[in-house]
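Subject: Sanity check before I submit

Could someone independently write out the C-alpha cells for this chain? I want to compare against mine line by line before I put it in a report. The sequence has 301 residues.
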Amino acid sequence: MATSPNDIRVIGYDKAVTPTKARRNIKVYSLATGRVTSVMKAGQSERISGLQLSTDEETLLASTTKGPILVFNTKTCCYLYSVNTTAVSLKNVVDARMTSDNFMLFRPDVEDKHSVVVWNMTKKTEHCRLRTQQSEGPVRRFDVVADDTAVVVTDAYLHVFSISTGDQLDSVHSRQGTSRICCRYDSPYFTTFNNDIDDNTVKLWQTSPVKCMASFTPDIRPREIFLSRDGRTLLGYFNTTPHPVLWTLHGTDIPAGGEADGTGQLPNPYGNEYMEADLSSPREHVTDDPEDPDSDEDVVT
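---
Independent answer below. Compare away.
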C-alpha cells in the first residue's frame, strides 16, 4: 500500500483505496483482512497523482498527471466518467472537495485568488463562486462542513457560505489568523491551527453559529491536525517528533455524540494527558505479497 497521505483514502470503516504501483488504476483494500478485494480501472494511460472522496464517501475523484479527473463509484467500484482539467482549471484533486449532491469545490490555479469555484459535476459547468473581499486577503484554505455549507479561510477571517447559492452566511474575525482547517462532514465542530513560526494556536470552532469554543497552544508546533469522525478527538503530527499525539475533547458542554449547549467556554477541552502511538514502518525489507496485486491486473477471486 502507498505511504503518502495523498495516495490513501479510507472509506467508512471497512475499506481503503490507493493507486496501484503503476499508478494507472486503484486498488480497494478490506480493512478487516488487509487484502485487496478489487481493482478500479478507467482504461486510461496517465498516472494517478491524487485521490479525494466526496462528503458521503460514495464518489472517488482521481487526478492524473496530464489528463482528466477520473470519477469512480466506491460502492460498485466502477469507473463513471472523466472531467477535463482544462475546463475546471484544477491540476490535483487533493485540495478539492465534493459534496454528495455532485458539487466540486476548488481554488482556481490562476486568476481569481479571492474565491472558491463551485463546479456542477453533473452538468460539467461552473455553478457559482464563493467570493471574499480583496481587503481580507486571498483564500488560504476551505472545507465543507455540510452539503450546503462551506468554511473559507482568508488571512484573518473565517467565512461561512451557502454552496448552492454562493451567498455568505457569516464571517468571523480570527485574531491570530489561520493557516490550516480541518472539518468533519456533519460534525458540530471544526478545528483550525496555525503552523507559522510565531503562532501555533489550535482552535475548536462551533459550526453553527460560528464561534470559537476553545483554544490551545501545544509546546511543539504541529505540522497537521486531523479531527475524528465524531468530532471529539484530535490527531496531531509534528515535524520534530515521529510520534503522532491524540487529544480527547473534554467538557460538560460536549455530551457524547451531541452538540455544545452554549452554556459557556469549554473547561480545558484537551485534557491534561495525551497518548502517543508509534506508527513507524518496519525497517527490514518486506517482500511483495502475491495476494496483494501491486500491478494493474485484475484481482483473482
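---
OP: Matches mine. For the report I'm noting this point. Residues 252-286 have pLDDT under 50 and may be disordered.
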